[in-house]
Amino acid sequence: MSFVPDLSDFLGEWRVSRSIDDRLTGQPGRFEGRAVFRPEGRGLRYREEGLLYLGEGPGMTAVRDYLWREAAGRIVVDHGDGRPFHDFDPADPVARHVCAPDDYRVRYDFSDWPDWRAAWSVTGPRKTYDLVSRYSRMG
After folding, report:
1. What is the pLDDT of residue 1?
2. What is the pLDDT of residues 35-79, one digit of tens each?
3. pLDDT, tens digit, 9 for 90 and up, residues 96-126
4. DSSP state of 89
5. Which of 107, 85, 139, 115 lies closest to 76 in space, CA to CA?
6. Cα(93)–Cα(53) distance, rounded to whole angstroms?
7. How far is CA 78 from CA 19, 29, 66, 75, 108, in A?
8. Could you tell me which residues come within 8 angstroms of residue 74 by beta carbon, excluding any fewer than 6 positions away?
């Protein structure tokens, strides 16, 4: 049985390593950085900062913000401005987000906790890529 996290298990700092396989452009990418989950309101503020490399180009600063919270036994992930993004059951951590005309699907894997990963598959006319983010606790 895999580890089933509570929201509080994510608190703290994480090292993030992400690979991107852009099948639309054929351009690989990667991200190296840090994510922090901090208490905010009834949930956690997720902030990610690091360097994004696309193809052979130089690294670019990249930042993401999300709000994570618990609701009805699920973990709800909203964009940093509060717009809905996706939610998942920690015991069966798969989710989908439709941003027409593109379709986003994610599978979280907590089986190597405290290391964990999020594997995204995005398809559509504007975006077609696979993205895998690997998290490991810092400190």
Report:
1. 46
2. 999 999 999 999 999 999 999 999 999 999 999 999 999 999 999
3. 888 889 999 999 999 999 999 999 999 999 8
4. B
5. 85
6. 28
7. 22, 24, 6, 10, 16
8. 87, 88, 89, 90
Measured between alpha carbons, how far is 96 from 2 in angstroms, rounded to an integer?
21
Residue 130 CB-half CA count within 13 A: 5
DSSP secondary structure string, 15-73? EEEEEEEETTT--EEEEEEEEEEEEETTEEEEEEEEEEEETTSPPEEEEEEEEEEEETT
- What is the per-residue pLDDT across 71-81, written as a single tens digit (0 to 9) for each? 999 999 999 99
Cβ–Cβ under 8 Å, residues 92 and 99: no
Closest listed residue to residue 62, CA positions, set 104, 29, 111? 29
The residue with tokens 């973990």 is 75
The domains of the chain, with CATH numbers, are 7-137 (2.40.128.20)
Burial profile 16-33: b = 16 or more Cβ within 10 angstroms, e = fewer: bebebebeeeeeebebeb
Q: Are 78 and 67 in contact (CB under 8 A)?
A: yes
